[in-house]
Amino acid sequence: QVQLVESGPGLVKPSQTLSLTCTVSGGAITTTNYHWSWLRQPPGQELEWMGTIRYTGSTYIKNSLKSRTSISRDTSKNQFILHLTSVNPENTSVYFCAGGIGPWSNQHRRGQGTQVIVSS
Question: What is the pLDDT of residue 65?
Answer without folding.
Answer: 96
